[in-house]
Specification:
The complex is a heterodimer of chains A (156) and B (144).
Chain A: H1 3-15, H2 18-23, E1 26-31, E2 34-39, E3 46-48, E4 53-54, H3 56-74, E5 83-90, E6 100-109, E7 113-121, E8 127-136, H4 145-152
Antiparallel strand pairs in A: 1-2, 2-6, 3-4, 5-8, 6-7, 7-8
Helix pairs in contact in A: 1-3
Chain B: H1 4-13, H2 17-21, H3 24-29, E1 32-36, E2 39-44, H4 61-79, E3 86-95, E4 104-113, E5 117-125, E6 132-142
Antiparallel strand pairs in B: 1-2, 2-4, 3-6, 4-5, 5-6
Classes of the chains: A alpha+beta (156), B alpha+beta (144).
């Protein structure tokens, strides 16, 4: 699978997630076992009205989506893997008015579990948050074929 | 996080509408809160835009996280005497069941409060409290 295929699969996948669409998440980079998503700034996701800083929940969703989608960049075949757990460490508030990026990596894949780590950052490189997560493999056939075809563009 | 006057109003009346309207992200996911005596129950109504997995369909795990994180934050703010605003340090979340497209509830417990750091536990459920869909733990920094 080449990087363009990975990128296309992830784009199609996140497009099926209502909340990811609502947040305006997009793919900025995809490679073997790694992925970067972008969360644009929006007044609608502010958590602190005094400062305009976005809520940690939007960053959690960004990182959960990036960590779950990086699996598509790590496995040849599309499998939907539910999140088992997620741990987020907040380093600093995200600077208002600027997008937040999340770079995720699947660093260990076993028969049953996928381990990921993810860093959320802004332009200039300052880390906003770090996240580690685990996902359970429930098998390819747990997702209906029409949905798998939608994600892979029919090419499995 | 919120205006001292709104905080005072919320503490006195138990009416969270003004506080929640002042926080855009609360409106974005639809978070609501009600007080029963001293207890707070947080609610996340079923909402199409909160969904992730379209097959089940299920609420996006990140939205469940954001809901529980904001619940912990508000709960902690209400349990303080001062007007200091807690700042989240970390958040650890275990998903136990799929959060289906229906109303979700959450309640919090202050596990430990020191001078500078507080530990809050959050439990979220849908059909029954006996069957939680997620459990979370968060640390907050308490600063003036």
């Amino acid at each position: 699978m080449d990087d363009k295929t990975r990128r296309d699969r992830v784009s199609r996948f996140i497009h099926t997630l209502n909340q990811a669409r609502e947040l305006g998440l997009s793919v900025t980079d995809a490679g073997e076992g790694h992925l970067t998503l972008c969360l644009p700034y929006s007044d609608r996701i502010i958590g602190n009205p005094d400062t305009g800083v976005i809520h940690g929940g939007a960053i959690t969703t960004l990182m959960d989506t990036a960590s779950g989608s990086v699996i598509l960049c790590a496995l040849e075949e599309f499998e939907l893997c539910p999140t088992l757990d997620l741990r987020v460490d907040y380093m600093r508030p995200a600077e208002p008015g600027k997008p937040v990026y999340a770079r995720a990596e699947a660093y260990r894949i076993t028969r049953n579990i996928i381990f990921t780590r993810c860093e959320a950052y802004q332009d200039g490189g300052d880390t906003v948050a770090n996240c580690v997560a685990t996902f359970m493999r429930i098998g390819r056939d747990a997702s209906p074929k029409p949905y798998r075809d939608l994600i892979t563009g029919g090419a499995e | 996080m919120t205006d001292p006057e709104i905080l005072r109003y919320t503490r006195e009346t138990g009416d969270f509408s003004r506080m929640l309207e002042s926080i855009p992200y609360a409106t974005f996911i639809g978070l609501a809160c009600e007080r029963f005596g001293d207890d707070l129950i947080f609610r996340l109504p079923s909402k199409e835009t909160n969904l992730g997995n379209p097959i089940l369909p299920a609420i996006h795990g990140g939205v469940i996280g954001g809901f529980m994180e904001m619940a912990a934050n508000i709960y902690l703010m209400m349990s303080q005497d001062s007007l200091r605003m807690p700042r989240i340090v970390d958040f650890s979340l275990d998903y136990l069941r799929a959060g289906l497209n229906r109303e979700t509830f959450a309640e919090c417990r202050l596990t430990r409060q020191g001078n500078r750091v507080a530990n809050v536990m959050v439990m979220a459920w849908q059909k029954s409290r006996q069957e939680p869909i997620a459990m979370a733990r968060a640390h907050f920094l308490l600063e003036d």
